[in-house]
Amino acid sequence: MRFSFRHVASSAILMLLLMGCDSVGSETVTLVADNLEFEFEFNSNDVATGALVDLRSRDGMDVDLGTFLASQGFSKADILAAQVEAVRLEIAFPISARATFLESAILKLEANGLSATEIAQQSTFPNERGADFEVVAGRDIGDLVNRSGGLQAILQVNARELAPNTTYELGVSLRMRIELDEG
Fold first, then answer.
1. Residue range 20-41: mean pLDDT, rounded
2. Closest to 88 in 3D by CA, of 38, 158, 161
3. Which of 29, 55, 121, 153 ranks highest by number of CB atoms within 10 Å?
4. Among candidate residues 179, 180, 182, 171, the one with its CA nearest the CA of residue 36
5. 129 backbone dihedrals φ, ψ, rounded to 5°
6. For 100-143, how does the pLDDT look when each residue is reduced to its tens digit (9 = 90+)?
7. Nearest 5 degrees, angle CA 144-CA 31-CA 148?
8. DSSP string for the chain
9. Is 183 exposed, middle or buried (0-12, 13-18, 19+ CB in 10 A)?
C-alpha cells in the first residue's frame, strides 16, 4: 500500500486566512498559506549514508500561489514580501521508520530562473514519524513566490542509517506568510 499526500490543484491545497490590514502609508494585507506540500521519494540503494544528498520534489508538486491570489483580487505583482513560518517533515514510508534515520536535513525552495534558497534545516530528530524544522528567521522569499510558474523544493538529507533495498517516501508541509500591497 503506497501512501500519498494530497495532490490537488495548488489553489485547493492552500488554506489562506486573511490575517489583517496595516493602514499606515499604503495599505497592506497579510495572508497565510498553510499546508503547502511537497513529496520526496528515494531508494536506499541510491543514497549513501553520511553524505548530504539532494532530493527534488516529485514532478507535478510545484506550488503556485497565482490562482489563489487572483481569486482574492491580487496578483503576484502585489507581493511585497513572503516568509516561511513553519516547516514539518513527515515519513510516509517505510511504516517502521522514525525521523532518527536522519542525521541532518535542509529544505530549499527554488523558482524559474532563481537559485535555490535555504528556508529551514534540522540536525536533531525525535524518535517519531515526523519532525519540525528550524526556519531561517527573516528570510524574505517574495522574489521566489513572485516568479512565473510554481515553487519547487529540494530536500537535502544526510542519512544516519537506511534499511537496505527500501523506498523512502517523505512529505514536507510548510506555512508561509505573504504580505501584499492593497494599493
1. 78
2. 38
3. 153
4. 171
5. -85, 0
6. 999 999 999 999 989 999 999 999 999 999 999 999 999 999 99
7. 25
8. ---------HHHH-EEEEEEEE-SSS-EEEEEEEEEEEEEEEEGGG--TTSEEEEEPPTT--B--HHHHHHTT--GGGEEEEEEEEEEEEEEESTT--GGGEEEEEEEEE-TTS--EEEEEES---SSSEEEPEE-TT---HHHHHSSS-BEEEEEEEES---TT-EEEEEEEEEEEEEEE--
9. exposed
Question: What residue has cell string 537535502?
Answer: 156
Instruction: Please report where in the chains the cell 489563489 appears, as a residue.
Output: 68
CA-based max dimension of the chain = 59
The arithmetic mean of pLDDT across residues 159-174, rounded, is: 96
Look at 183 and 102; give whichever has higher pLDDT: 102
Interatomic CA distance for residues 94 and 47, integer angstroms? 15
